[in-house]
Amino acid sequence: MSTAAMTVEDIMSRRVETCGRDTPVVTVAAKMSIKAISCVLVVDQERIVGIVSERDIVKLVGDSAGQIAELAAEDVMSHPVYSIPPGSTLEEVREILRTKRFRRLPVVDAGGGVVGLVTQTDLLHAPWGDR
Q1: DSSP string of 19-54?
Q2: Could you give the CA distance from residue 95 to residue 58 in angstroms, rounded to a whole number?
Q3: Tens of pLDDT along 71-96?
Q4: Domain membership flag for residue 130
Q5: Considering the domain boundaries, does residue 92 fall inside one?
Q6: Is 116 in a helix, a strand, or coil?
Q7: pTM of the shown model
Q8: Total domains present in the chain
Q9: Which residue range is the domain that position 38 belongs to?
Q10: Is residue 2 part of a domain?
Q11: What angle is formed at CA 116 by the lines to CA 15 and CA 50, rounded to 5 degrees?
Q12: Can you list the alpha helix ranges (DSSP code H) found in the chain?
């Protein structure tokens, strides 16, 4: 299948880790470490309200390491979150990641529910043979 015919749904990760706004940052960091993932989506009533990435954790440790135990996901998450529908083309995703300088994009259904996550790595592994 050429990438022109592929959509985000064809390459996205369907197993997405989430947490609540009040989840302690140390719990989020532990989840990321144990599962070897680069981000956790912050949800409120099954809708994305933020994203905590490895970059957010590193910045937090560098800026205020002594306070990390007192902080919740909501305190460090990036928001608002830019998301895309599963029918988006790979070219659309590539352009969004490039222009917005994102590394990952949550994939949401028409109701705003999380259905997946697409990353730069997912795009790198897509079959770009038609180029």
Answers
A1: EETTSBHHHHHHHHHHHT-SEEEEEETTEEEEEEEH
A2: 26
A3: 899 999 999 999 999 999 999 999 99
A4: no
A5: yes
A6: strand
A7: 0.86
A8: 1
A9: 8-125
A10: no
A11: 100
A12: 8-11, 25-35, 54-64, 73-76, 90-100, 120-125
